[in-house]
Amino acid sequence: xxxxxxxxxxxxxxxxxxxxxxxxxxxxxxxxxxxxxxxxxxxxxxxxxxxxxxxxxxxxxxxxxxxxxxxxxxxxxxx
Length: 79
Prior knowledge:
Elements: H1 2-23, H2 32-42, H3 46-57, H4 61-75
Helix pairs in contact: 2-3, 3-4
């Protein structure tokens, strides 16, 4: 039972730390897969970024488009 208490404590602490970082203007560090998508976005290749996101994360077209749009906003990249 103690394990679950500590697990819940650390999960909530991680959420708090991430929220505090986002509030202070710092984005979460991108994963290696996310970086590949960001490289295409920074190069102005929006469609290729969506295709890459679909391949890497195995998502639907709509989910990939929504995720790429969120990355655009999160990192302040204009299309």
